[in-house]
């Protein structure tokens, strides 16, 4: 069994979003060996690839409230008869704090979603993640028992005019983790290149999970494999970040570095603990 904790399939109305995500990472990091663009084009193509790779369930991280990437479109898909293997996280990108809270209130009460997701540079206005004005967002997550997934990596710095290099350091999560101990937090991309900082944070805060996805193939990420054998085996998650990277690339990197003793936890058991409140058809 495998649960992919971060991917975006071409669900209805998201076809262009999926198409746009198939090759930007491979173009940006063309020096990485064995990283090729995703070839799937349709929803059926994606399901076929998941079956071939043994990926039984997956998490779709929402984007925002705009047509073509909206929470409403994701909501309609999640509760449709076409969904028997996907979880969904509410997306709060490109929203103000007030709009983000309203969105969590609207969709958190449905019981359809399993978490909240954001790239912090996309909260309006541009605000450091540790700023107390964002606490209303975390309070809403706690209210509905929704884990919070935040994307932190060098890719944010490269793709955002306002984000500085230090912005993505997981150390900035300390005040949030200290105050909201009951909220599970997932760091997508694992904060690369601040891998050691992420590891130290996870060792201290048991409600923090690291999800390196395709960054497992980047220099320095092998430290996560050592960390898994030294106490973090229950706080690491598998994800592909598909279609930014193909399923087989991410799985190959995980299997290359992580020991067999921790693979079941990383591939699905840890994800099951986070997603246990959601029952799929």
Look at the helices and sheets and give the structural class: alpha/beta
Put simply, the count of helices is 12
Q: What is the CATH topology classification name? A: TIM Barrel
By CATH reckoning, the class would read Alpha Beta
Domain unit count: 1
What features would you describe in this structure?
- This protein is α/β, with parallel strands linked by helices and 281 residues long.
- The chain has a single domain (3-275), classed as Metal-dependent hydrolases (TIM Barrel, Alpha-Beta Barrel).
- The chain contains 12 helices and 9 strands.
- Strands 1-2-3-5-7-8-9 form a 7-stranded parallel β-sheet. Strands 4-6 form a two-stranded parallel ribbon.
- β2 (57-61), α4 (71-78) and β3 (86-91) form a beta-alpha-beta unit.
- The mean pLDDT is 92.
Name a few traits of the molecule.
TIM Barrel; seven-stranded parallel beta sheet; 9 strands; two-stranded parallel sheet; globular; single chain; alpha/beta; 281 residues; 12 helices
């Amino acid at each position: 069994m495998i649960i992919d904790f971060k991917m975006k399939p071409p669900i209805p109305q998201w076809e262009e979003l999926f198409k746009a995500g198939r090759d930007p990472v491979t173009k940006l990091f063309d020096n990485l060996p064995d990283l090729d663009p995703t070839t799937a084009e349709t929803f059926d193509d994606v399901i076929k690839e998941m079956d071939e790779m043994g990926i039984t369930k997956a998490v779709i991280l929402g984007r925002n409230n705009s047509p073509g990437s909206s929470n409403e479109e994701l909501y309609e898909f999640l509760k449709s008869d076409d969904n028997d293997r996907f979880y969904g996280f509410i997306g709060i990108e490109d929203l103000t704090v007030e709009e983000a809270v309203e969105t969590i209130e609207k969709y958190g009460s449905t019981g359809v979603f399993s978490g909240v997701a954001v790239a912090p540079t996309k909260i309006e206005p541009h605000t450091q993640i540790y700023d107390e004005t964002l606490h209303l967002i975390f309070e809403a997550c706690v209210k509905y028992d929704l884990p919070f997934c935040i994307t932190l990596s060098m890719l944010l710095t490269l793709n955002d005019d306002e984000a500085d290099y230090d912005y993505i350091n997981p150390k900035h999560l300390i005040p949030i983790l200290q105050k909201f101990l009951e909220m599970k937090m997932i760091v997508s991309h694992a904060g690369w290149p601040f891998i050691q900082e992420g590891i130290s944070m996870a060792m201290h805060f048991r409600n923090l999970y690291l999800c390196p996805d395709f960054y497992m193939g980047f220099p320095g990420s092998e430290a996560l494999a050592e960390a898994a054998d030294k106490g973090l085996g229950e706080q690491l998650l598998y994800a592909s970040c598909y279609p930014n990277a193909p399923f087989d690339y991410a799985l190959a990197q995980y299997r290359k570095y992580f020991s067999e003793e921790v693979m079941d936890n990383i591939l699905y058991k840890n994800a099951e603990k986070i997603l246990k409140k959601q029952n799929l058809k």
